[in-house]
Specification:
With 400 residues, the chain is an all-alpha fold. The chain has 16 helices and no strands.
Length: 400
């Protein structure tokens, strides 16, 4: 078994600050693409039913690149994966801008795939924050880095609103160029992250077989709850900007709704870790699912801007509780030498499930409307909540 080197408190704080900043900048990449992807897709796609395909390719890029990035981190250290991912983020912005200028839907989908690759490596920032940190402080370190994404709720919409009309014939072209610049800045910040252990030490022991790790009691339940939390958030967030556009809500108002949604996604990160430490990871994950259900009910209550905003804010808070709780629990299932393997597997499942939700949301919206998207999201939320509750009940009964 490999023993992970514990960083000094100063080094831990140094890493948390850098990873939080990188999380904010990487989050802006996702915000830009989610806020514009379906709208640009609707303008240049050969069919309206394909409007959300660029966002689907974004999610496909996340799922497809998570395991390779995990292998890269395992062999060469997390920093190698960070640099590769941010490089993909720079190319994303440049290709997307070119696609808008050329009116190329295919090129825009390729940009979406690379944007997903960048988002995939950005999600490992939360786990990287726990490297070299004592067990009792890991949930807080993880949640603090996710809390850094609050700035993404400001940076992303500002990039869209402030730049989308700077090149009048080509709306959003300058937005994507600005996004590429932000990704480059993120790379510079990540270069200063202090690794918790030498790469060679990480590769001395392969750890337990994945089959043995997966069979641990509660592992699959944890992965499933995190996957549902992220899938439903993506399912609704993908369709919301286009739905607002269809209901005559301005792009500026839509951007502001996405901004508050992203702030709600990451803002609780400053205290979610403390809540997990006090109440337990899966209780917080369960609370997140309930809040997400409240988001659906808010959306079903009407199609005015207030209903969209309230739904998006609750959706963000529910995602934070659900996904952070599941992520914090995953750490309990692996040893130091198994971390990149297990964490990559977890995120691969999460984003593999998201692919279905991402593509189907656009089709549901165009065929049956916004309410169908909302009702469709409520089913997995209720199922995941019941899985957690029944598993906890059985566990408690067994202890008694």
């Amino acid at each position: 078994m490999t023993t992970e080197h514990t960083l000094s408190v100063a080094e831990q704080n140094h890493n948390i600050i850098r990873l939080s900043a990188a999380q904010a900048l990487a989050g802006a990449n996702s915000v830009v693409f989610y806020a514009t992807g379906a709208i640009v897709g609707n303008a240049i796609a050969p069919s309206a039913s394909l409007a959300t395909l660029p966002i689907t390719t974004f999610v496909v890029g996340m799922a497809a690149c998570i395991l390779p990035f995990g292998m890269l981190a395992r062999k060469h250290g997390r920093k190698a994966a960070f640099m590769t991912g941010t490089g993909a983020g720079v190319i994303t912005g440049l290709l997307a801008a070119l696609a808008v200028v050329m009116g190329s839907f295919l090129l825009f989908c390729v940009a979406g795939f690379l944007g997903g690759a960048y988002a995939a490596v950005a999600l490992s920032f939360r786990f990287a924050a726990t490297d070299g940190v004592a067990k009792e402080r890991r949930a807080r370190a993880l949640s603090l880095v996710m809390g850094g994404g609050v700035a993404a709720g400001v940076i992303g919409p500002m990039l869209v609103t402030g730049t989308m009309n700077l090149w009048p014939p080509h709306t959003f072209a300058i937005t994507f160029i600005a996004q590429a610049l932000v990704a480059a800045i993120s790379a510079v910040i990540l270069m200063g992250v202090t690794p918790a252990e030498p790469v060679a030490a990480a590769t001395k022991s392969a750890g337990r077989p994945l089959r043995e790790i997966v069979r641990q009691p509660g592992f699959l339940k944890t992965v499933f709850s995190g996957a549902v939390a992220y899938m439903v958030m993506n399912f609704l967030m993908t369709a919301a900007p286009l739905s607002m556009h269809m209901h005559g809500i301005s792009q500026q108002a839509s951007n502001l709704g996405i901004q508050w949604h992203v702030i709600a996604m990451y803002g609780p990160g400053f205290f979610t870790g403390r809540l997990i430490h006090r109440f337990g990871a899966m209780r917080i994950a369960s609370a997140g699912l309930l809040i997400t259900a409240g988001s659906v009910l808010a959306g079903l209550s009407g199609t005015d801007i207030f209903h969209y905003w309230l739904s998006l804010i609750l959706l963000g808070i529910g995602w934070n509780f659900g996904f952070t709780g599941a992520s914090a629990k995953i750490i309990d299932y692996h040893r130091p030498e198994e971390k990149t393997q297990v964490q990559s597997l977890n995120d691969f499942v999460v984003f593999g499930v998201m692919i279905v939700g991402s593509f189907s949301s656009g089709a549901l919206l165009n065929l049956y409307g916004w309410n169908a998207v909302l009702w469709g999201s409520l089913v997995p939320v209720c199922f995941a909540f019941l899985v957690i509750i029944t598993t906890r009940s059985r566990s408690t009964a067994g202890q008694e």
